[in-house]
């Protein structure tokens, strides 16, 4: 599904070079639910941006659903993002002027579906996240948890094979976070592969698989160990 | 997608109403100022008779002073003497020809209660009407025989007919002009060539005359000179007839020459004519005959005033300044949309799609600016009209061509102004925007 081999990414300014990823290796199988954890600055976000084709990398290979993405044109990368990847962001990133129906419609517009097909998908996805009765509401009329549900519906509308979630519960209280996490697990149970970046070890525990990123490299750990590391870090920090 | 982009443009404009209004105002000011001057220049430089302007030729022969040209650098006089006008007409060497002059006389309406009034007269030959395709409301032109017989016939302008006969068909009725009885043979429908090409010496944008009558009546009735009279030597006799025989120029002449052969034949004829006159002691200057078609003659006479051209360039510079302001405003507006652009990129919009989306938005702003600019241009033209009076009336109307041109100009300008801001907006790195919202 997703294979990264010996991936490197370096940010350069006039004064410094920052090795965000170095010899980064990861394989995600179809149907996986992978939680990516690690300290700030470890390279989690860079990994997510490269995985989502929002950034390019310097060296290595990255195959997404069997397709080598290196050297793809902007148009081809956009098409891949649209067809195969769904994004869920920490801050929801809904467009404030558009109602829920139109927000979920955005990726479908670029896909070129006819209006009947778009309507069917939007209604189905909003139904799935429990907001079918609020289609004409604006994002500002919803709670944070509801907004994240709309963002999930938008990510699912294109029926992607792969969901990338960047701190999906970071802006939510624990009750809403739990509800969103349950929704993600439900989506994963239906067959969608999910890669989720999080700081929350308890949330990471709920994923099928945990990977830990440090200094731009992957170290794969069992879920409970990850939680222990996080707890230890928290104690040390205190 | 176009309708989707239109809807997004509407939402974006609504989201930033003040910024959008400022952009519309900047474009409107630029378009308003430039369309005002473009319209004046367009009407000044318009082809007044496009379907045959290349077949109609203004006749010039150089009867001027041997020591200096009528105008530098060696231009022949822009009018003819009476002698040359009548001789060239008598020769009848062109398929159609009409010498003409401007004059004036008092008209006494048949209604005893109506006051006499002074009317401008175009003295000409019968070919004038067929050459220039003048439309008739009633009747028609007089004929060549009536020209030769100096018959007292007259054609009225529509306004004159409204004034004198209340707009009824006056053909066959009498009208007292310059103390003589004339028979009305026709009434022109509305006819106002812009520029009034057939005689630009008395003002290229003046109204057509109120009366038209046979040219030779000038001599028979001793009608006064109108327009510009120029002499390079004093008339030898101090009388009306003496003036007609002098070297003073006051008459215009047009010929219709349908092809290059007839034009060449007419030039040959002019050469023969001038050589004959030289043998009689006239035409002391070297041969310098000219046949200018309508647009060449408008150019020669500098119908488009220099200050109008200067104003045009100034207004186009003003439009450029307005567009530079629009570019700044668009940059500000699109930078405020960077998180939305980042999001759209992330969920599948290509740079091209976003580029089109934002170009549609700038085009909508441009169109709104164009419509507002048209209203400002109308105000500007009304201002010019009230400032310059009747002279400018024929130069201050917006026709459909100019309306379409104004909207296209504002569209093109706004799209050009939007290219750089749009390009910048589409090159935003999406990853940098998605975390920052």
TrEMBL record, chain B:
Location(s), subcellular: Cell membrane
Transmembrane segments: 21-44, 310-332, 353-382, 402-423
Membrane topology listed for this record: Multi-pass membrane protein
Top-rank taxon, per record: Bacteria
Domain named MacB-like periplasmic core: residues: 20-220
Sequence ranges assigned to domain ABC3 transporter permease C-terminal in this UniProt record: 314-430
Native source species: Bowmanella denitrificans
Keyword Cell membrane: yes
Keyword terms of this UniProt record: Cell membrane, Membrane, Transmembrane, Transmembrane helix
Presence of keyword Transmembrane: yes
Lineage: Bacteria, Pseudomonadati, Pseudomonadota, Gammaproteobacteria, Alteromonadales
Protein name: ABC transporter permease
């Amino acid at each position: 599904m997703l294979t990264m081999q010996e991936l490197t990414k370096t940010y350069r300014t006039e004064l410094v070079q920052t090795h965000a990823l170095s010899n980064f290796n990861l394989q995600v199988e179809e149907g996986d639910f992978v939680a990516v954890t690690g300290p700030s600055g470890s390279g989690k976000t860079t990994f997510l941006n490269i995985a989502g084709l929002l950034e390019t990398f310097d060296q290595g290979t990255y195959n997404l659903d069997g397709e080598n993405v290196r050297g793809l044109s902007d148009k081809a990368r956009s098409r891949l993002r649209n067809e195969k990847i769904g994004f869920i962001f920490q801050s929801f990133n809904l467009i404030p002027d558009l109602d829920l129906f139109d927000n979920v419609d955005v990726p479908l517009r670029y896909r070129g579906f006819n209006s009947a097909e778009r309507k069917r998908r939007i209604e189905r996805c909003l139904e799935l996240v429990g907001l079918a009765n609020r289609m004409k509401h604006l994002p500002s009329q919803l709670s944070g948890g509801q907004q994240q549900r709309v963002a999930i519906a938008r990510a699912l509308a294109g029926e992607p094979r792969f969901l990338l979630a960047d701190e999906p519960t970071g802006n939510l209280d624990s009750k809403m976070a739990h509800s969103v996490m349950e929704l993600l697990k439900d989506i994963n149970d239906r067959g969608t592969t999910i890669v989720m970046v999080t700081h929350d070890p308890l949330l990471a525990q709920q994923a099928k698989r945990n990977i830990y990123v440090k200094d731009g490299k992957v170290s794969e750990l069992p879920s409970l160990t990850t939680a222990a590391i996080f707890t230890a870090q928290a104690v040390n920090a205190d | 997608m176009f309708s989707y982009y239109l809807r997004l443009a509407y939402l974006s404009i609504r989201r930033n109403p003040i910024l959008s209004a400022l952009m519309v105002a900047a474009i409107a000011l630029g378009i308003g100022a430039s369309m005002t001057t473009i319209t004046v220049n367009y009407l000044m430089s318009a082809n007044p008779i496009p379907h045959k302007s290349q077949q109609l030729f203004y006749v010039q022969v150089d009867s001027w002073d041997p020591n200096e040209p009528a105008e530098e650098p060696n231009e022949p006089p822009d009018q003819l003497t009476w002698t040359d006008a009548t001789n060239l007409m008598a020769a009848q060497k062109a398929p159609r020809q009409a010498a003409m002059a401007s004059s004036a006389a008092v008209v006494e309406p048949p209604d005893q209660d109506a006051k006499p009034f002074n009317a401008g007269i175009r003295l000409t030959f019968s070919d004038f009407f067929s050459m220039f395709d003048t439309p008739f409301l009633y009747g028609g032109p007089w004929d060549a025989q009536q020209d030769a017989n100096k018959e007292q016939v007259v054609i009225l302008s529509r306004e004159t007919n409204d004034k004198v006969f209340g707009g009824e068909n006056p053909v066959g009725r009498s009208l007292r002009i310059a103390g003589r009885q004339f028979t009305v043979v026709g009434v022109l429908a509305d006819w106002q060539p812009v520029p009034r090409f057939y005689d630009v010496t008395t003002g290229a944008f003046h109204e057509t005359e109120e009366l038209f009558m046979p040219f030779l009546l000038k001599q028979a009735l001793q009608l006064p000179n109108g327009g510009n009279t120029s002499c390079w030597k004093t008339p030898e006799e101090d009388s009306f007839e003496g003036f007609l025989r002098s070297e003073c120029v006051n008459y215009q002449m047009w010929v219709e020459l349908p092809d290059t052969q007839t034009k060449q034949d007419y030039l040959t004829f002019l050469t023969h004519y001038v050589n004959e006159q030289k043998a009689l002691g006239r035409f002391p200057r070297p041969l310098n005959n000219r046949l200018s078609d309508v647009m060449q003659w408008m150019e020669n006479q500098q119908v488009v005033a220099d200050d109008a051209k200067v104003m045009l360039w100034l207004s186009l510079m003003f439009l450029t300044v307005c567009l530079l302001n629009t570019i700044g405003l668009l940059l500000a507006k699109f930078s405020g949309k960077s998180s939305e652009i980042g999001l759209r990129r992330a969920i599948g919009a290509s740079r091209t799609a976003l580029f089109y989306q934002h170009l549609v938005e700038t085009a909508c702003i441009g169109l709104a600016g164009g419509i507002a600019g048209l209203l400002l241009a109308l105000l500007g033209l009304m201002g010019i009209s009230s400032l310059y009076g009747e002279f400018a009336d024929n130069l201050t109307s917006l026709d459909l061509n100019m309306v379409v041109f104004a909207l296209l100009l504002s569209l093109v300008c706004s799209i050009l102004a939007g290219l750089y801001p749009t390009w910048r907006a589409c090159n935003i790195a999406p990853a940098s925007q998605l975390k920052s919202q």
